[in-house]
């Protein structure tokens, strides 16, 4: 039995055949099982002898079966390892890379610039009280200058802010001058009842700036904005101040920057005068300081407000404000440099 068994095991060609052989010998009616059952009929002298022999036969066959099975399993594993190797040198798939919106890039560039000069960046609220948007900015009810900014009212004394200037009053209300001068910028969305066209949008973004301390003057404003213009538009830019009017500043100015090359590809921003307006600014009106409980005899300040879209349009030679809001990838993907 043993030699016959070892021979068929040797010739088995896979795990299934091996299993069939195991059943043939060790199954309920298998050869070994039957032989073992026959043992009970042997005499007492024969039992130990035959028992020892049959144990040896059984062990030999079992061992051989196990060895063969281990060998088959190892073979199978090798085949799988061969078939399932990864080619780690294979080129990966390219994922499209996103970037922040051009307006976000410009806003962050301006924020970084002022952060570097020790300003804090403050958040305001897009839904604002009439009090803060107008009255605290020296625009009482029926003030004619309210017409400069057509307003979305959303309730009694509640509106979509028309500029970021109300943040001035909010910050002055709580500032503690024992902790140092007040220097802040505040970026955010503003809303006006304008019909959208190439240069108007019912929603756009501004950055407000405010500095209040002892002896702050128009000269400080000019120095600050001069630096700003050079950083943002190029080293050889100059600025000039033109007299203007805002109810919350006195004197008020409009700030122009000298002609410059934008974007690239021969793009040049220039008007006949050689100057382009970039923002409104001025010395904070004493009444505005006083309404926040700041002594205008002791303190003075300057403020400015710029449109982020306008700055971006000048910087990159973009001629239609609607480009910013149409989410056309052909437009947006041109500005992946920084983001
Ligand atoms: N708030 C003004 C505007 O929206 C801009 C401005 C801000 C002017 C601060 C002067 C000082 O037009």
Highlighted features:
rod-shaped, 339 residues, seven-stranded mixed sheet, 12 strands, single chain, three-stranded antiparallel sheet, binds phenylalanine, alpha+beta
Give the strand line-up of the largest sheet.
Answer: 1-5-6-12-11-8-7
Question: Could you estimate the helical fraction of the residues in percent?
Answer: 25-40%
Percent in strands: 15-25%
Q: Structural class from helices and strands?
A: alpha+beta
What characterizes the major β-sheet?
7 strands, mixed
Number of helices: 11
Distance between the termini: 80 Å
| Whole-angstrom Rg | 43 Å
The total strand number stands at 12
Give the overall shape: rod-shaped
SSE pattern, N- to C-terminal? HHHHHEEHEEHEEHEEEEEHEHH
The ligands found in this model are:
phenylalanine
Mean pLDDT: 91
* Uncertain stretches of 5 or more adjacent residues: none
Gist?
With 339 residues, the chain is an alpha+beta fold. Helices cover 38% and strands 21% of the residues. It contains eleven helices and twelve strands.
Question: Could you please describe the fold and organization of this structure?
Answer:
The chain is α+β, with helices and mostly antiparallel strands. 38% of the residues lie in helices and 21% in strands. It has helices at residues 2-11, 15-26, 31-38, 46-83, 102-115, 130-133, 166-174, 218-233, 286-291, 308-316, 329-332, and strands at 120-121, 127-129, 153-155, 158-160, 182-191, 203-213, 239-246, 249-258, 260-261, 268-269, 275-284, 300-307. The strands form 3 sheets. The protein has a 7-stranded mixed sheet with strand order 1-5-6-12-11-8-7, sandwiched between helices. Strand 3 (153-155) and strand 4 form a beta hairpin. Helix 1 (2-11) packs parallel to helix 4 and helix 5 (102-115) crosses helix 10. The chain is rod-shaped, with a radius of gyration of 43 Å. Phenylalanine binds next to strand 11 and strand 12. Its EC number is 6.1.1.20.
């Amino acid at each position: 039995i043993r030699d016959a068994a070892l021979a068929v095991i040797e010739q088995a060609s896979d795990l299934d055949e091996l299993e069939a052989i195991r059943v043939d010998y060790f199954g309920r009616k298998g050869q070994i099982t039957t032989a073992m059952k026959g043992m009970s009929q042997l005499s007492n002298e024969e039992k130990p002898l035959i028992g020892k022999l049959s144990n040896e036969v059984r062990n030999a066959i079992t061992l051989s079966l196990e060895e063969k099975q281990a060998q088959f399993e190892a073979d199978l594993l090798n085949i799988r390892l061969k078939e399932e190797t990864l080619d780690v040198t294979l080129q990966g798939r390219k994922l499209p890379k996103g970037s922040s919106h051009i307006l976000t890039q410009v806003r962050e560039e301006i924020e970084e610039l002022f952060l570097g000069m020790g300003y804090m960046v403050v958040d305001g609220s897009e839904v604002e009280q009439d009090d803060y948007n107008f009255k605290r900015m020296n625009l009482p009810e029926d003030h004619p200058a309210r017409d400069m900014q057509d307003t979305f009212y959303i309730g009694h004394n509640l509106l979509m802010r028309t500029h970021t200037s109300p943040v001035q009053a909010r910050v002055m209300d709580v500032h503690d001058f024992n902790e140092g001068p007040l220097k802040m910028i505040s970026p955010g969305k503003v809303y006006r009842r304008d019909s959208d066209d190439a240069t108007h949008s019912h929603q756009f973004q501004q950055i407000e700036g405010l500095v209040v301390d002892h002896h702050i003057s128009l000269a400080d404003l000019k120095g600050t904005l001069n630096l700003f213009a050079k950083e943002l538009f190029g080293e050889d830019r100059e600025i000039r101040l033109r007299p203007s009017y805002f109810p919350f500043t006195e004197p008020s100015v409009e700030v122009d920057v000298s002609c410059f090359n934008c974007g690239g590809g021969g793009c040049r921003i220039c008007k006949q005068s050689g100057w382009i307006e970039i923002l409104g600014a001025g010395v904070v009106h004493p009444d505005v300081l006083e309404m926040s409980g700041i002594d205008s005899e002791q303190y003075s300040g300057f403020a400015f407000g710029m449109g982020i879209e306008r700055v971006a349009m000048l910087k990159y030679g973009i001629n239609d404000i609607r480009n910013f809001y149409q989410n056309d990838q052909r437009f947006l993907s041109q500005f992946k440099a920084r983001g």
